[in-house]
Design brief:
- With 128 residues, the protein is of the alpha+beta class.
- It has one domain.
- The chain contains 2 helices and 7 strands.
- The chain has a 4-stranded antiparallel β-sheet, covered by helices on one side. The chain has a 3-stranded antiparallel β-sheet with strand order 2-1-5, with no helix packed on it.
- A hairpin with an 8-residue loop joins β3 and β4.
- The protein is globular.
- The chain starts with a helix and ends in a 13-residue tail after the last strand.
- About 5% of the residues have low confidence.
Length: 128
């Protein structure tokens, strides 16, 4: 009986990971093979209980707004309990953290993620 329960738990975990996807404005970022890096912007609004996860995967970011938030498959904003909840969500979706930084005093923190499984030694180098 214990073996059957263990097998069921493993299957449920595998199926839930297979269904996990990263949606931004209805676009499944995981299906965009040309996207290697994404930037997670943690936006904590003054009177909000939950931070918003904004993802830049190379789309037009001139005016950051609701259309850049991480959503569920139906387009509803995904609520996160904090930064680590966002990190865990991205990790489940195949992304690895590379770098964290902040700019200015607007209260936003930026995290750079790389698609897991891509060897960063073979990626082209930019800059110096």
């Amino acid at each position: 009986m214990k073996k059957i329960i263990l097998i069921l738990l493993v299957l449920v975990g595998t199926l839930s990971q297979a269904k996990a996807q990263l949606y931004v404005a209805g676009n499944n970022v995981n299906e965009m093979s040309e996207v290697v890096y994404i930037e997670l912007i943690v936006d904590m609004r003054l009177f909000s209980r939950f931070p918003f996860a904004i993802v830049d995967y190379g789309q037009d970011m001139r005016r950051i707004g609701r259309q850049h938030r991480v959503t569920d498959v139906n387009g509803n904003d995904k609520n996160f309990n904090g930064d680590m909840d966002m990190f865990n969500h991205l990790y489940k979706n195949g992304w690895v953290h590379e770098l964290t930084f902040s700019q200015g005093s607007e209260g936003m923190i930026y995290h750079l993620f790389r698609r897991r499984g891509i060897d960063k030694e073979t990626l082209p180098r930019f800059g110096n």
